[in-house]
């Protein structure tokens, strides 16, 4: 019954970049499977997306627990919904010096940003392979390109996402499946509030933050074109270009100075 329908599964789809990506898919008549923690928010977004004349399935799962990533796949598989597009958007950070931050929260972030992403990618990829078609978009970050004092675990997880994405892209180059990494910079989302990062110098100028709709458009277009990665925003392209030639120690110092609490400046 579903073989002619197009489905895109998006994690973190109720806010920020994930929400903007979901709108783009809905506009292009992809049926949506949206995953987030809050069922009320999911229900509200589903009503909005259905106005595009598509089907929307909501799955309320907390991907801080990797077992729930397996459960998301099981629910979709049970319904026999063919997922042609997978967007791993859900992610979080934590702000502070590593000696002071909460280890349990950091382990949750590693599970969300890495473990659940890897699980969903593997399971849905295995279903794409026999069909010979599929697109996967993984949310990396410009943080993936440099060590990140004051966000050491977050930067580390995003470095993993970028490396992982580029590796499996090479493995899949003759399969009809493409894997794309989206590298946003500082974007006007709830990320910084959730990361307890509002005191950081890097987020004090809200006018300099990217619009999540612009970032989503960059990622959407790159994924649809089958590109390996896209850095969103001109200044972020400049910064990542410089990161390729600067020593890591200099990058770490520069990033740390930019992410210190504003009162330390």
From TrEMBL:
Sorted alphabetically, the keyword list is: Oxidoreductase
Sorted alphabetically, the Gene Ontology cellular component annotations on this record are: membrane
State the Gene Ontology terms under molecular function: oxidoreductase activity
Q: Which residues cross the membrane?
A: none
The protein's matches in Gene3D superfamilies, at most eight in alphabetical order, are given as: NAD(P)-binding Rossmann-like Domain
Q: Which family does it belong to?
A: Belongs to the short-chain dehydrogenases/reductases (SDR) family.
Q: What is this protein called?
A: Oxidoreductase
Source organism of the structure: Pedobacter lusitanus
The organism's lineage is: Bacteria, Pseudomonadati, Bacteroidota, Sphingobacteriia, Sphingobacteriales
């Amino acid at each position: 019954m579903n073989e002619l329908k197009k489905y895109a599964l998006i994690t973190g789809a109720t806010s920020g970049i994930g929400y903007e990506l979901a709108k783009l898919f809905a506009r292009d008549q992809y049926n949506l499977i949206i995953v987030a923690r809050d069922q009320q928010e999911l229900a509200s977004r589903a009503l909005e997306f259905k106005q595009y004349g598509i089907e929307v399935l909501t799955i309320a799962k907390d991907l801080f627990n990797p077992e729930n990533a397996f459960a998301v796949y099981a629910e979709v598989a049970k319904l026999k919904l063919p997922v042609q597009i997978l967007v791993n958007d859900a992610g979080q950070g934590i702000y502070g010096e590593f000696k002071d931050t909460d280890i349990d929260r950091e382990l949750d972030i590693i599970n969300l940003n890495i473990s659940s992403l890897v699980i969903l990618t593997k399971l849905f990829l295995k279903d794409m392979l026999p069909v010979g078609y599929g697109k996967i978009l993984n949310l990396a970050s410009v943080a993936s390109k440099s060590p990140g004092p004051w966000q050491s675990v977050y930067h580390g997880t995003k470095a993993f996402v970028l490396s992982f994405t580029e590796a499996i892209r090479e493995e899949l180059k003759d399969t009809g499946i493409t894997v794309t990494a989206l590298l946003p910079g500082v974007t006007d989302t709830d990320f910084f509030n959730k990361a307890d990062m509002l005191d950081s110098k890097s987020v004090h100028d809200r006018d300099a933050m990217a619009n999540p709709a612009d970032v989503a458009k960059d990622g959407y277009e790159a994924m649809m074109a089958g590109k390996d990665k896209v850095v969103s925003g001109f200044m972020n392209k400049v910064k990542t270009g410089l990161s390729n030639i600067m020593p890591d120690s200099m990058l770490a110092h520069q990033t740390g100075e930019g992410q210190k609490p504003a009162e330390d400046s």
